[in-house]
Design a protein that fits this description.
The protein has 123 residues and is mainly α. The protein has a domain of 82 residues. The chain has six helices and no strands. Helix 2 packs antiparallel against helix 6. It is elongated, with a radius of gyration of 20 Å. The termini are close together.
Length: 123
């Protein structure tokens, strides 16, 4: 009977992680994307007066488009990257490291931890 429970348990765990696997990227790609996002956020913070106007700032628009394209190339198409682009166009939001926060929210393809065996005594 415990084999049947373990089979059901592994099916449930597999189903729970399959949805996340469709959006996951390799740890290497995530590190590259994190470097891109971190540099972009540092540039926006370092040159804040040029980037403070949001959508009205040409340098900010150019940087945001370049970062968006670079992240699409690195991570693939993700709706959260487009959402971050919209947030970056709001004046004053360049103070918040939104590119870095978005990249940190992308799941990686690390294998999920196995569930412990069921401790159910069925008699």
């Amino acid at each position: 009977m415990s084999n049947a429970l373990q089979a059901v348990q592994s099916q449930i765990a597999g189903a729970a992680h399959s949805g996340m696997a469709n959006h996951a990227v390799s740890p290497r790609r995530k590190k590259i994307a994190l470097a891109i996002a971190g540099i972009a956020d540092l540039v926006q913070l370092g040159f804040f007066p040029a980037f403070a106007e949001g959508v009205l700032s040409i340098p900010d628009d150019v940087l945001d488009i370049i970062v968006t394209i670079a992240l699409f190339i690195t991570l693939g198409f993700k709706w959260r990257i487009l959402a971050a682009l919209v947030v970056e166009l709001v004046p004053g939001v360049a103070l918040f490291p939104s590119w870095t926060a978005v990249v940190l929210s992308v799941p990686t393809t690390d294998k999920p931890k196995a569930l412990p065996p069921a401790i159910i005594d069925v008699e």
